[in-house]
Amino acid sequence: MRLVIIGGGILGTAHAWAAIARGHEVVQLEREREARGATVRNFGLVWVSGRAAGELALTLRSRELWEEIGGRVAGVGFRPAGSITLARTPAELAVAEAAAAGATATDRGFTLLEPDQVRALNPALRGKYLAGLHCSTDAAVESRQALPALRAHMAASGRYTFHEGTEARSVLDTGSGAVVVDDQGRRHEADLVVHCPGAAHSGLTRELAGELPVRRVRLQMMQTAPLDEPLTTAIADGDSFRYYPGFAGAEVDSLAAEQSQTATAAEHKMQLLCVQRLHGGLTIGDTHEYTEPFAFDVDEAPYEHLTEVTEELLGRKLPPVVRRWAGVYSQSVDPDALVTRVRADTNVWVVTGPGGRGMTLGPALGEQTADQLGL
């Protein structure tokens, strides 16, 4: 078959990868010269630890696919580094203990570590904490270089074409297939069209699928200059227990009741995630904002909070912050939906809304769509 995939982010590229792997031909259109949305404005984390039990199997499958991809495409920067979520209070420790004893702990690779064990695993963590929940299945990729590396690998098949700086203007279903007309007047004929618009819910997306059950979420992040030592795992703080459904339970309810976040963390719905990039710098975040219109500028208070928490856990000053940014991603409003798939016409599908799980679940979602469409 010949597929046209609209959208050059992680979801569109994952669908292209799945189609190429099954022997099909793919033409992919991206309106920017390179993906500039949530695909590159993230941690590059393949995050198993906090995923809900109902999506754990798909998450583990995606983790397996990322490792397979990383073995074939070195440029994606896959590394099975794992993570440690650090508990700083008794209430957070209770959540970590429950997670380590939970029914899915073995599948997730959970182990509860004493402070000395944490430092043995990740010597950079010389700060203050009571314990660390280690997740051996968590991993990371380099979000800013992964997609170009994947495209180069697919292009070598002879069955993949990428059109940068090309916006799809219309999609015409022909009954036996479809035609995508781009902003340069070119017509791209296809047996099947998959539109992966990311957070662009208006324009062509609305024309094809109407109002989708999705919302946009804004976040703020930052990156430091290289740290002069390795951070051998990704790290998270206890506030992440509040946001990831895999930790839901009485202990999290008690955490919410007994311990309030700082005013800044509560206002911006914050958690700390931190991962070291291959160049040595730390990517640190993040915040959550759900009510539009979003501001065009960034707030300084969250960055001060993130810096304070990270320095407390590391027991040292951070390197200088060299970049700050905001990003917007698309999230399905149904909490049980991993992604929103809408059949816009006989041979046209719209796929969006993985929330903050796009990098984690991308390969598995592409594979899942391929299965559902009989590719």
UniProtKB/TrEMBL annotation:
Annotated ranges, domain FAD dependent oxidoreductase: 3-371
Entries under Pfam families matching the protein: DAO
MF terms in GO: oxidoreductase activity
Keyword hit for Flavoprotein: yes
SUPFAM superfamilies referenced in this protein's UniProt entry, alphabetically: FAD/NAD(P)-binding domain
Coiled-coil ranges (or none): none
Signal peptide limits: none
Gene Ontology CC entries for this record: cytoplasm
Keywords noted in UniProt: Flavoprotein, Oxidoreductase
Cofactor(s) required, per the database record: FAD
Keyword Magnesium on entry: no
Family: Belongs to the DadA oxidoreductase family.
NCBIfam families: HpnW_proposed (TIGR03364)
Name this polypeptide is given: FAD dependent oxidoreductase TIGR03364
